[in-house]
Amino acid sequence: MDYIRGWAYQQLLLEQRLAVKREMINGGSASDEFNANQDRLLLLEHHHVYTLGRGADEDNFTFLDNIENGMELRKKLSRKSKGLDSCRLESNRLIWMPDLSIYEQVNSFHPPPAVFAPNGVPIYRIERGGEVTYHGPSQLVVYPMLDLSAVDHFNKDLHWFLRCIEEVIIRVLYEYGINGVRDDINTGVWVGKNKIAAVGLSSARWITTHGFALNVDPDRGITSIANELSSNPPSLQEIATVVLDKFGDVFQSSLQPSEHLI
Prior knowledge:
Blueprint: H1 3-25, E1 40-44, E2 49-52, H2 70-77, H3 102-108, E3 115-116, E4 122-125, E5 132-135, E6 139-145, H4 158-174, E7 189-191, E8 194-204, E9 207-215, H5 225-228, H6 236-250
Parallel strand pairs: 2-4
Antiparallel strand pairs: 1-6, 2-5, 3-4, 6-9, 7-8, 8-9
């Protein structure tokens, strides 16, 4: 799935859920015919894309120094840039319309124009924490959309949530005999000194968005499950099944299959 579509699904599901919660707080009937007010776990595989989190510095894209309109493109990627001239994916570009399905709304979304890296991969700035992250084929991207305020065994603490996400990844890797570890300074999960999974999170009223990307078998010379195993690497679908199992264990949750996003 294109990254833009995955991002739009998250934002619309979030807005739908926030609307139901606002209605409940204001004493409304809160009819939840679309099951909006429930936790979700989105498991996706994206096309090639680079995303810039809140901590990413656009000045690190040195290729912009060598092209004619590099300064203009750098401004589009700036942390300060917003609006129609920006490459920022902003939630206010999406408006939840109750009369339309989320699928219809995603299809009608017109994203801002991207800046393209020399290899042709689009670059966008987004609202999650973290630095620059690559997504692409044979990488499992997982977006937990949990209400940390709604369940007794959850904590309203994003640091706790981050550590739980890292624990899920570590347990998945252990299933294949790979020793994944945390870093004292940086987020994510590492094998030795190399990152095998990136983590970047965001939340609104304690409902989480974004998540983690686990390198299964991307053809980019980066640390991955396939590279760590000498033979017979698992498929993306196999890894997804293990992720669901370990996620349920760590978050003490029972997971049920839901709709496919297209």
